[in-house]
Amino acid sequence: MFRYACETCGSNLEILYEYDTIADQLRAHPISENADYSMWRYGAFLPVVHTPEIPGVHIGWTPLYRSKSLEKRFGLRGVFIKDEGRNPSASTKDRAGAVAIAHAIQTGERTLTCASTGNAGSSLACLAASCGMSTVIFVPASAPRAKIAQLLVYGAGVIPVLGTYDDAYELCLTASQEYGWYNRNTGYNPYTREGKKTVSFEICEQLGWQCPDTVCVSVGDGNLISGVWKGFRDLYETGMIDKLPRLVACQAKNSAAVKKALEGNGEILPVSGETVADSIAVKLPRDGKAAVNAIRESGGFAISVSDEQILKAMHECARETGVFGEPAGVAPYAALAAAVSEKTLSRDESVVLVMSGNGLKDVDAALSSLPVPPAIPPSMEELNKVMAERLKKIEGG
Q1: Is 347 in the same domain as 279?
Q2: Domain extent for 362
Q3: Is residue 76 located within the same domain as residue 169?
Q4: Which of 81, 265, 275, 332 is found 20 to 30 A from 258 (Cα to Cα)?
């Protein structure tokens, strides 16, 4: 039976590689010669064999946008947005799910499960559907409707849980052991980190194999930021890049267990986990230890932002860049604004914001602080009244 976690401490296992062997492979078959512009172009760094049916949708090679507007707003040399909302289920979780599913297929599994606030579950359901596999997804009953809709449309067996994400996680863990399902859970299945690290490969390749100075990543369970760090380390160890970035962990104030651990003795302690950013609403980060280690090794730091700052970031980022992120996705934007205000970034830095999920996954959050215009009868007279009022507001300032 596949062993998920360390039998001694219970922490997430790490998959190790022989970097000299990978470097030799890449010299013989450079990545630049690979015509597959998806996450699978980095197969030399992955622990599974990719075949066309695993999975049957295109994942990765998401856009990396340079924003002159944000460079001017924040006074930085370079600001880039990695738009992970362009993945099949609209979040970076597709990278993790793809490697986990490939491993499940290669080990003969047929039923997959995970606990999720929505993104990991909708991703698993999406990718499993493309491979003809079945899923059982445990979600808090309070998960955003758009994410529940994704689960149902993809044909997942949905188990809404009256409780938090952490409650759903524990029930999923017990159920997977009871029924013998393959468990994709973040911070439990080591293959998820291997998928998420491919975002770092893309960032460097899209920057001409240059490493950015700073990378801002939203943090819930801690699996994404530890994966991002592993990706950069993989490239560094094989000589693909000549430096490593500093990582900035971006958390919501009530879900900042990793930030508190960094500022303390490194021990992960539970917090309330209550935040509008459901994708990072976690009481006890399952991969928190790996996240703390990654941030410390990179010489980075953590910033926590309020729900008000996150909602403001949703609007500002969309209007400044044209990229619409869900609350957790724009947490890096909110954290960047705070870091600039606190002068923890220098003006000559290049910064990448990893936008982990699309804003359409949580339109209720987007609309919560925006007035919806009232409907009008279909007449020019009524339209003229509306336009006159708007002109008055513009002129008034």
Answers
A1: yes
A2: 64-87+193-367
A3: no
A4: 81
The reported pLDDT for the residue numbered 12 is: 80
Take residue 331 and report the two structure tokens written for it: 């947490």
Strand order through the sheet with 182-183: 157-161, 134-140, 111-115, 182-183
Q: Domain count of the chain?
A: 2
Whether residues 230 and 149 share a domain: the answer is no
Contact yes or no for 255/218 (Cβ under 8 A):
no
Q: Which residue has the tokens 């969309």?
A: 318
- Could you tell me the CATH number of the domain that includes residue 227? 3.40.50.1100
Note the maximum CA span of the chain.
74
Judge if 276 and 210 occupy the same domain.
Answer: yes
Under a CB-based contact definition with an 8 Å cutoff, are residues 356 and 92 in contact?
yes
- Measured CA to CA, the distance from residue 274 to residue 77 in angstroms comes to 35
Q: Are 228 and 197 in contact (CB under 8 A)?
A: yes
Q: How far, in Å, are 251, 271, 302 from residue 261 at the CA level?
A: 12, 11, 10
Q: CB–CB of 328/366 below 8 Å?
A: no
Amino acid (one-letter) located at 187: G
Do 138 and 267 lie in one domain? The reply is no
Q: How far is CA 223 from the centre of its chain?
A: 9
Are 361 and 308 found together in one domain? yes
Ranges of residues in the chain whose predicted pLDDT is under 50: none
Closest to 282 (Cα-Cα) out of 271, 291, 293, 297:
271
Co-location of 320 and 358 in the same domain: yes
Token readout for 349 is 């830095």
- Do the beta carbons of residue 207 and residue 245 sit within 8 Å? no
Do 122 and 254 lie in one domain? The reply is no
What pLDDT is attached to residue 9?
78
pLDDT of residue 49: 86
